[in-house]
Amino acid sequence: MPNIDVSIHLLIPLVAFVIILFFLLFKRKKLILRKSKLFFHSILIFVLVYLYVVGSSFYWDVQYQLDLMKYDLNGDGIFTPDEINPNQKLAMQGLTNDLGRNLSVFTGLVFSLALSTMFYWTFKVVAIHRS
Fold this sequence. Notes:
Elements: H1 8-26, H2 28-34, H3 37-69, H4 86-96, H5 99-102, H6 104-130
Helix pairs in contact: 1-3, 3-4, 3-6
């Protein structure tokens, strides 16, 4: 089994938002009674989109590490000259070009907030025009 370096900065928000998701799902009756159903659905969309963005970043981070470890023939974590080839260089480049994955914690918040806000206001306007 290869040694995988888990990105803590991706894992912590991922676990936190999974806990928030379960809290929302278990307390949905009580939360819907206090606030509107539309507000609850907007919060749920926010959490689900954020989980998708950060979860996919976490998945690709692990996937790139597994891909790179295929080229470590002796399993010591260091690439000797006989292990370096063009495919290994591509795998290393995929793992090290990780700015988007690292910033997904922040961009996920912005994207999730924008999407859930658009959802809320779109259906709020539709509800106003229906009544």
